[in-house]
Amino acid sequence: MTETKMGLRELKKAQTRENISHNATRLFLERGFDNVTIADVAAAAQVAKMTVTNYFPRKEDLALDLHDVFVGMLARTVRERGPGESALAALRRAFLAAVAAHDAVIGFSGEPFARMITESPALVARLREFHDEREAVLAEALAEETGAGPEDTRPKVAAALLGGVHQVLFEETLRRTIAGQTHEEIAAALTPAAEEAFGLLEPSLGGYAIR
């Protein structure tokens, strides 16, 4: 297969995935996540039901379709930290930049979407799995970056602390979003909250995993 044909094929796959995701989100916001079926999404996107499940094996991932970005973001930040920068410093810097950018991945999703998530037990449970997966991936990255052996628990402990701060701040963003605050208001409140939260970890992790 030529590069042109491969490029067109990948483009079509991306367009199909985007079409499915767009229609799923629209239906979820209109009816509520638990009131929409895979068949409903397939009909709205004008594709077969099997096509939907091929792209999104779990219904929850139709609503939370940034799984890979979300799960890998902390580990990626650690791996890309600058010379002399600790894992804590890199993650604090990246989070504050995401707050300033009103990044949807850290919770700036808008009130209708935030309410849809929090009102669905299935989505709340799936989001909890995202946080757990992200922590595990971060622990692996910290172990690699520090040369920790399999018996060394420090990467897992550090990942639990760092992942916990991100989860608390994510949930705070959702709470403020549902309360009707604007992105600007949330960012103004979240910035000092994040500074304080990361600051609490400074005594234990300030000198850990410095490049």
UniProtKB/TrEMBL annotation:
The Swiss-Prot or TrEMBL record marks DNA binding at 37-56
The record's InterPro entries line, in alphabetical order, gives: Homeodomain-like_sf, HTH-type_TetR-like_transc_reg, HTH_TetR, MftR_C
Q: Which residues form the HTH tetR-type domain?
A: 14-74
Source organism's superkingdom?
Answer: Bacteria
Q: Name one GO molecular function term.
A: DNA-binding transcription factor activity
Ordered alphabetically, the record's keywords are: DNA-binding, Transcription, Transcription regulation
Point out the coiled-coil segments of this chain: none
What name does this protein carry?
A: AcrR family transcriptional regulator
